[in-house]
Amino acid sequence: MADISSRVDGDRVLGDLNALRAIGAYKTGVHKPTLSEPHLRSLHWFVQRLPDAGLAGEIDGIGNVIGTSAKHGPRLLAGSHLESQNHAGWLDGPLGVVYALEAARVINLDPNINGAVEVASWCDEEGHFGHFLGSRSYVGGVTEADIDAARDRNNDRSMREALRDAGLAGRVRARYEQGRHIGYLEAHIEQGETLESSGLKIGIVTSIVGIWQYRITFTGEQNHAGTTRMAIRKDAGLALARFCVDIDNRFPAACGPRTVWTTGRITLDPGAPSIIPGAAEMLFQIRDDDPAVIARLEELLHSMAAEVNAQGRCAIAVERIRTGTPARMDTAFQGAIEAAGVDFADGKSLRMPSGAGHDAQILSTVMPAGMLFVPSIGGISHHWTENTADADIVTGAEVFVDACRRLLAQ
Ligand code: HGY
Ligand code: MN
Ligand code: MN
């Protein structure tokens, strides 16, 4: 067995994760929306630790941090994100950033290892301003106009203003260099219960879902909740509720084996108890790793909307506001993770798809990419009770660093 586990310092990994947990702490989780004060403090924390890993870097013009190495030889890029969903978990994102930092500290400073790990913290993976704006900026998929248009979904603040307030206005945005890296490796909590329920320790990610997001609006007639007879109402809120139930009744016949759909936000206008809502809006999401399934469900959505409009009571409009290309993870990266899992996790690993979106799916458009998961307690994530056992965090770090070493040696 390789001796690398003597150099992965599990206490240092746990110490770093808990230091980040203390920044923007919320109950046992964190509240670090993109470009918020605690998110910026976390980015500065990361920048300050780059030199000890043989790296140099700064926060770039969209809030990414890329740590680069001057060491000769092959280079592997590794990372994840440091912002969180609102009032959410302490590991979603930071686990992958700290594992990347640990891999850099162990590998970059070892003269016997040819090559280096470069690290990244991608801004806005959690979609407060857009989708994957940080990693998409790095691969050249974000224009200045996109940033001009981006607004915080929590408070409608413009991204331009947030970047200016953070002192990042005018900074260059880091771009990937063709051929600089052999690929990208990301570690993440599973955010589901597969590993824990199977007594396994490592998920070897095979594919990452595409996320398609819709804004569905309903227009009825605002009126008095007491004097308007039921028979003549045009209640936009009721039309929305009926549509959600109709989706649940009709999607199962058209979906794939792992398709999921979610209505994550409902807004009623004006949202007062004595007023029949004249307008309603739902943010609706479909996820699958097969684009044909998503296209089929989108077609069904539009035909269901046409049926509602044909009834002539409330008008409905379906607007697609985001698409996402599913990604296949590189098989050589999967193999390196599996081999490392044999050495450091007793082979307790499983090849599995990711139902969550990740920056790895963006990086996979320009270089080979791989992901590994560690177990989530109770499968909980995007909630402040999200957690992973310390022993599983350390095992995951050792597998991750060994996988990096194997990939650099290929
Ligand atoms: O929503 C997602 O899949 C990711 O956790 N942001
Ligand atoms: Mn994440
Ligand atoms: Mn997340």
Automatic annotation (TrEMBL):
Domain of life per record: Bacteria
Transmembrane segments: none
Cofactor note: Binds 2 Zn(2+) ions per subunit.
Matches recorded under Gene3D superfamilies: 3.30.70.360, Zn peptidases (3.40.630.10)
Keywords: Hydrolase, Manganese, Metal-binding, Zinc
Domain Peptidase M20 dimerisation: start-end pairs: 209-310
Residues that bind Zn(2+) 2: D92, E126, H382
Chain residues that bind Zn(2+) 1: H81, D92, H188
Cofactor(s) annotated in UniProt: Zn(2+); Mn(2+)
GO molecular function, one term: hydrolase activity, acting on carbon-nitrogen (but not peptide) bonds, in linear amidines
InterPro entries (UniProt xref): Amidase_Cbmase (IPR010158), Bact_exopeptidase_dim_dom (IPR036264), Peptidase_M20 (IPR002933), Peptidase_M20_dimer (IPR011650)
Oligomer status and interactors: Homodimer.
NCBIfam families reported for this sequence: hydantase
Protein family per UniProt: Belongs to the peptidase M20 family.
Protein name, entry field: Zn-dependent hydrolase
Organism from which the protein derives: Bradyrhizobium icense
Lineage: Bacteria, Pseudomonadati, Pseudomonadota, Alphaproteobacteria, Hyphomicrobiales
